[in-house]
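$ ./design --mode recover --in tokens.txt
reading tokens...
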């Protein structure tokens, strides 16, 4: 382990952009397929990993939705989330705001209750076991209709006090944020926070729509905002958090080479960027792997790494006292780390 690796491992982090279904490791996929008697189109764990070569977002999504077919019971969702929390805790994650895609499951006949109760029980266990706090983000699938998103929000009604935010994911191009302006307004009226994927593959116009029509509290990804200087100025001026995912960006060809990743450019522009893993089982690494890979590829300073970790807490939905506590811990660590 190098000094940089050690420094990153000890740096306290929040993870703000994580799809829990994207943390399904091939080993667990096989175990759940067997437990549930589900057939999957792979002969071995190696065979699954070999399928993880993507040239764009849709390539990945096709495999990601197919993988989720092994998740059937409340215990499956619990085990999935617990595996993520154990891994995240080992990476120095102290707080995680995790997205889940209910429609991926309810459209297969799985009860919303099984999905959310499995996740909630793992969240409670992670807090007791690791002191890792977490929050849930219910994400709408943007390739489906506005009506389907409203139905999903209605299904969530009995658990609204356990859900921090709604989000928007899946195929971005052709499904602009404007398609979900009314359902986001309804979620906001229920007191939920709002996030949306924008500017991963979609143009800067989609980032403007997420701001102006959805009124989001955070932008997931946001890479293509860099194409529009006025938008960059606005995001920086508003202190808008961007949940950036370096290994995902590389695997989905949002950046050709990690050496060209714009993370340090974002910080230099005053953008509140954070580092996250997105779908760690599919993109080759958890959050500390993302920090390490992009730190090496871009030669990031310790100051930049500390800034990114601080941003992850100030960009979270934690209450101000909790944010202040985590920031103080980061600053104490940075002052004493050798
Ligand atoms: O990176 C992503 N983008 C859009 N939808 C997703 N669903 C899981 N991961 C992603
Ligand atoms: Zn994502």
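writing sequence...
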């Amino acid at each position: 382990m190098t000094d940089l690796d050690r420094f990153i491992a000890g740096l306290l982090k929040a993870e703000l952009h994580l799809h829990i279904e994207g943390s399904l490791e091939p080993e667990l996929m096989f175990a759940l397929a067997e437990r549930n008697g589900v057939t999957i189109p792979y002969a071995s764990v190696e065979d699954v990993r070999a399928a993880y070569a993507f040239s764009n977002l849709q390539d990945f999504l096709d495999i990601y939705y197919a993988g989720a077919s092994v998740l059937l019971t409340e215990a499956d969702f619990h085990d999935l989330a617990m595996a993520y929390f154990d891994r995240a805790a080992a990476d120095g994650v102290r707080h995680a705001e995790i997205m889940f895609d209910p429609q991926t499951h309810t459209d297969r006949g799985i009860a919303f209750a099984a999905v959310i109760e499995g996740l909630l029980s793992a969240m409670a266990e992670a807090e007791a076991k690791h002191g890792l706090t977490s929050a849930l983000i219910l994400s709408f699938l943007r390739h489906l209709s506005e009506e389907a998103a409203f139905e999903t929000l209605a299904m969530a009604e009995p658990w609204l006090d356990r859900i921090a935010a709604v989000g928007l994911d899946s195929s971005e191009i052709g499904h602009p944020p404007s398609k979900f302006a009314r359902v986001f307004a309804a979620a906001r009226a229920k007191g939920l926070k709002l996030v949306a994927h924008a500017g991963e593959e979609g143009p800067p116009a989609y980032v403007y729509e997420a701001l102006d029509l959805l009124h989001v509290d955070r932008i997931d990804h946001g890479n293509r905002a860099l194409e529009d200087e006025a938008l960059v100025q606005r995001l920086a001026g508003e202190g808008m958090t961007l949940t950036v995912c370096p290994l995902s960006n590389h695997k989905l060809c949002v950046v050709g080479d990690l050496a060209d990743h714009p993370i340090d450019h974002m910080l230099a522009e005053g953008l509140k960027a954070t580092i996250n893993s997105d779908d760690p089982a599919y993109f080759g690494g958890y959050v500390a792997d993302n920090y390490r890979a992009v730190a090496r590829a871009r030669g990031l300073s310790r100051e930049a790494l500390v800034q990114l970790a601080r941003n992850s807490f100030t960009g979270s939905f934690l209450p101000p006292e909790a944010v202040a506590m985590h920031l103080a811990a980061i600053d104490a660590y940075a002052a004493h780390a050798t």
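exit 0
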